[in-house]
């Protein structure tokens, strides 16, 4: 009797094994292994008169010291790229990040302003660790989210290694830079910081036609150069933005010596670049900036 029971159990187990062997799905090859992550492209509808859909390509171009994403948003498909950068001073110049986000909103709402031969890339926040010091997050925010304590805002000017990123570029770089009447770190060498490296790599790979960087606060449009004369193209775009926005135009920033700054490094790469300095540390002055941006879009539509 025991032998019969054992035989039945063995047969039952064998039948179960056969069932699972024949009904289990065949494992598929992992085709995503070791492949780079693609950019996220979405089609954003627009509701304006005669509007068209616009593709928004979202790309992570690098990481901060603490591993936070540095994100670029691209609109349009033209060969000439207009690059706009905000938030290099993180939580101290937080309004430069907000005006950059306003630009992304504007391009999604009115894609017809982008000429066929142009694409626009916006990097709203180059220094996410700095914003996180001030705000405790790097997600999109409003002016009311910013703490009023000035020392917390000032701490957010620097990255996680207490380096002033706008002193870390290869144009007259020095390890010790100046901000107003203070000494600040320019890093251990030019491009020592991953945030400035991200812009360097992006520039080398994409070769933007022109760059606009936002800072605060002085109220003006400043041309770029690196130890030489301002190029004719830089003079032209400085005038175009200034005339349309009604900001005053300047050939250089002369309030105090700046070393290793980003806009002048672009000039060293023969890329026309301007700095738009908002008038204060709280307002985005969007109406003025929109007019300046529209002027640049029209200028490059004719190129």
Topology (SSEs and partners):
Blueprint: H1 2-23, E1 40-44, E2 54-63, E3 69-75, E4 80-85, H2 94-109, E5 118-123, H3 128-135, H4 150-155, E6 176-179, E7 182-185, H5 194-206, E8 210-216, E9 220-223, H6 232-245, E10 249-250, H7 262-268, E11 273-278, H8 286-301
Parallel strand pairs: 4-5, 4-8, 8-11, 9-10
Antiparallel strand pairs: 1-2, 2-3, 3-5, 6-7, 9-11
Helix pairs in contact: 6-8
Structural write-up:
- This protein has 303 residues and is an alpha/beta fold.
- It has a single domain, classed as Zn peptidases (Aminopeptidase, 3-Layer(aba) Sandwich), CATH 3.40.630.10.
- Helices cover 34% and strands 20% of the residues.
- The chain is built from eight helices and eleven strands.
- The chain has helices at residues 2-23, 94-109, 128-135, 150-155, 194-206, 232-245, 262-268, 286-301; strands spanning 40-44, 54-63, 69-75, 80-85, 118-123, 176-179, 182-185, 210-216, 220-223, 249-250, 273-278.
- The strands form two sheets. It has a nine-stranded mixed beta sheet with strand order 1-2-3-5-4-8-11-9-10, sandwiched between helices.
- Strand 2 and strand 3 (69-75) form a beta hairpin.
- Helix 6 packs across helix 8 (286-301).
- The chain is globular and about 45 Å long.
